[in-house]
Amino acid sequence: MDAPIAEVWAVLADIENAKQWNRAWDSIEITSSQRHGVGTTFRAHLEGDLAFEFEIIDWSNLERIAFAPIRDEGEKYSLMLEEQIFTLRGASDGTTEVELKAVASVHGIRGRLYGMFFWAGHQQSGLNEALDTIEDIVDPPEEDDEDEGHPEED
Questions:
Q1: Quick one: pLDDT band at residue 146, thresholds 50, 70, 90?
Q2: For residue 41, pLDDT beyond 90
Q3: What is the C-alpha separation between 34 and 143, in angstroms, rounded?
Q4: What secondary structure letter does DSSP report for 115?
Q5: Is the pTM of this model over 0.85?
């Protein structure tokens, strides 16, 4: 990304506004007394009445943020997101490399099939969209000149 690491970090560390880069989330509600760092919990609301609880499990300033779903004991699905990890690396030219990784586990035949045939493509699409959106936030595309392509009138 064509932005300094501090600018990219500021977008990611602003958990309450994560809906800016994760378009699946309609709103974010912080559910813990702390708002940043390991142990922060939040609820991500999706379209309709669907919501998921998460906890920040890694927070290394200007380097890495990871969050994991909070589940009830014994809660198990065929395919389960285990964590999402953002890793940042600043370059000497002032740009930032951002790696976004989703880790999941599969259970049973249905989970294995879903994981093999659908998960990777589905997640890759969502991860790429999130990265593109973050990049647009920290380095907005230049707006087209309104007169571009039109000859000037004398």
A1: low
A2: yes
A3: 38
A4: I
A5: no
Q: Please report, for the chain, the start and end positions of each structural domain, with discontinuous segments joined by +.
A: 5-138
Between residues 38 and 114, the one the model is more confident about: 38
Question: Of all helices (H) and strands (E), which one includes residue 74?
Answer: none
- DSSP assignment of 8-47 equals HHHHHH-GGGGGGT-TT-SEEEE-SS-SSSTT-EEEEE-S
CA distance 19 to 79: 23
Q: Which CATH superfamily is domain 5-138 in?
A: START domain (3.30.530.20)
Axis-axis angle for helices 120-138, 5-13 (nearest 10) = 120
Determine which of 12-26, 83-97, 132-146 has the lowest per-residue pLDDT on average.
Answer: 132-146
How is residue 129 written in tokens? 């969209």
